[in-house]
Design a protein that fits this description.
Blueprint lengths: L15 E4 L5 H12 L3 E4 L16 E3 L3 H11 L1 E3 L12 H4 L3 E5 H4 L6 E5 L10 E3 L14 E5 L4 E10 L2 E10 L2 E6 L6 H15 L6 E9 L8 E8 L11 H10 L1 E3 L4
Parallel strand pairs: 1-2, 1-3
Antiparallel strand pairs: 4-14, 5-8, 6-7, 6-8, 9-10, 9-12, 10-11, 12-13
Helix pairs in contact: 1-6
């Protein structure tokens, strides 16, 4: 004899946050913040099947990696907002502090000086973002037409992640010091004024080139003898996939929710 299980009640509320089945600390913190608002936070199984009851939960949003987002966003009727893959290439040197170029792997292989390179857009199974002593250090088995972003090698003292919404920093965190993972809340960092000042100057000058919700990574460049003081863009990315580090989860959630919108534009 089997006992019939009661049907799961249809959730209803201010919205739905969909996450991948694989646990991440950032995803767990965002799920807690969403549930505290009365939202439904739902981890999808590996098959990424969206529950039939999803529309009853209210407006849908997602948080997860690029492959997860690309697979799930169409099923939720969402458009993903993110900076263009080559956004740093078009920035004035004032904001990059270094030369940043877009090229294909065949061109990068011809370089003989050290450089930093990463695949753009990011793609699994290609090459790791790293410093290469010369172009012949890049993997030889990858196609020469693979696009890459190549920049001068620089050193950063402290690096920070900022969650931007409509041109304002909603929350942020230090995530590295001298290239090593070192998360700390933004508010307690001695570089706070410098970080916010640089971010404000960037938004005033070229904020229109970014989506309304995104993450911005900035760092303090190290000059000769370890001299600090100049700030520069490290990278920009999608809030729907960005790690929180020590950012305030509820404020970060505001940015994550705004980083997707209905594909219909409704």
């Amino acid at each position: 004899m089997t006992t019939e299980q009661p049907a799961r009640p249809l959730p209803s509320g201010p919205g739905l946050l969909v996450l991948p089945a694989r646990y991440t600390a950032s995803g767990a913190l965002l799920a807690q913040a969403a549930e505290a608002r009365g939202m439904v936070a739902e981890q999808l199984p590996p098959c990424r099947t969206v529950p039939e009851w999803a529309p009853a939960a209210g407006p849908a949003h997602l948080y997860g990696g690029p492959q997860f987002a690309a697979a799930v966003a169409p099923r939720l009727g969402l458009r993903l907002l993110a900076p263009t893959p080559d956004w740093p290439v078009h920035l004035p040197h004032t904001f990059t502090g270094r030369t940043v170029r877009r090229m294909v792997l065949a061109e990068a292989r011809a370089l003989r000086e050290p450089f930093f390179a990463k695949p753009r857009p990011p793609a699994e199974g290609t090459f790791p973002a790293d410093v290469y002593g010369s172009g012949d250090r890049l993997p030889a088995d990858l196609p020469g037409g693979l696009p890459a972003q190549v920049s001068e090698v620089v050193a950063f003292g402290a690096e920070f992640r900022l969650f931007l919404l409509d041109g304002a920093v909603r929350t942020g965190s230090r995530y590295a010091t001298l290239g090593r993972l070192d998360p700390a809340p933004l508010g307690g960092c001695p570089e706070l004024a410098g970080v916010l000042g640089f971010a404000g100057d960037l938004v005033d000058a070229i904020g229109h080139t970014l989506p309304r919700a995104c993450i911005l990574d900035v760092g303090e460049l190290l000059g000769p003898g370890g001299r600090r003081g100049r700030w520069a863009v490290v990278a920009a990315g999608a809030a729907w996939s960005g790690h929180l580090y020590a950012s305030e989860p509820d404020c970060a959630l505001d940015v994550v929710l705004a980083s997707t919108e209905p594909a219909s534009g409704a």
